[in-house]
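Action item from last week, closing it out:
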Amino acid sequence: MTEVIPAIITKTYDELKNKISLVRGIVPIAQIDICDGIFAKNLTWPFTLDGMDIHFKRIENEEEGLPFWEDIDFELDLMVSDAIQNFDIYAKLGERRLIFHLESVGDAQGFLEFLEGMDRYVRDTIDIGVAFKPSTALEQIFPLREQIDFVQCMGNDKVSFGGVELDERVYGRVETLRKQFPELPIAVDIGVNAVTAPRLVAAGATKLVAGSALFNSSDIIGTIRGFQEL
């Protein structure tokens, strides 16, 4: 069964809570897109024009958890410029998976050294994924394989915005990764819809990260089930 991961991108905590409420009990995990307005041009929760949202600070201090954390797990998509520098903060938010963007973390060798030096307890409790844009050389991912749990092919270079079309190059990139690493979990985020999803799964994708296709649907459950059955 194809894993379907709702992509949640919001400006406020209330929006975040509302979207999570729509998918809890339907899927085991949802993705929260964290965008700092620097690496990713959009500015989303927990970043605000005045700093960080108060709920984020409470979650960081373990005074509360992410909304509905008892019912659903989370992966954090770190579309930020400080993913490595503030890794300890992001790792404390109670997520099951963390996604780093290769274009944000600098050169692949430096990132590899960061992964190799990661605290073993954190490494054993959080799955690490690496995301990359269609314009990024795919070969940069290969040396990271032994230190990551999955990859996330971004469907377009325009990250952090909903409703963006899938770049046609992504199908071939998924096929290449599947041939190179037969057991590697491969996610695709951006441009996943009823037309592109079957082709992505046929190419070798095992995870479909969908935002607009789910939350703009009149039947969220039916849409999720349809993607899962591909």
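Closing note: The chain has a mean pLDDT of 95.
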